[in-house]
Task: structure prediction
Amino acid sequence: MNPHPQALKMLRTPELKPYVIFVKPPPLQRFKDTRYDMHARSTFDEYSSRGFTDAECHDIMHSANRIDFHYSHWFDATIVNDNLIKAFESLMFVIEGVELEPQWVPASWVN
Result:
């Protein structure tokens, strides 16, 4: 799932028991460098395939910082996506931990 951040409070229910992972971008210059190195293409313009503009990079950083500031108390884990392979490995490590280790839930969720 990739819910809107404002939906996190509504999704945290005993029926769903979500585990929220925030994948955030690295610092701006690292973000630009990694996207350039990986030939990442912008999806902001549906009619062309091009790299990210500086304005788009700044918008992504601004959005990520805003989400982190306002909603970080809903995150169970945060992964910085500064290297695709390492970020994927971190994601798999978190998922494995969720599957294998006991997790805290509010007492009201326990039947």
User: Anything to note?
Assistant: The chain has a mean pLDDT of 88. The beta strands are 21-24, 77-80. The first strand starts at residue 21 and ends at 24. Helices lie at 8-11, 28-37, 54-71, 84-100.
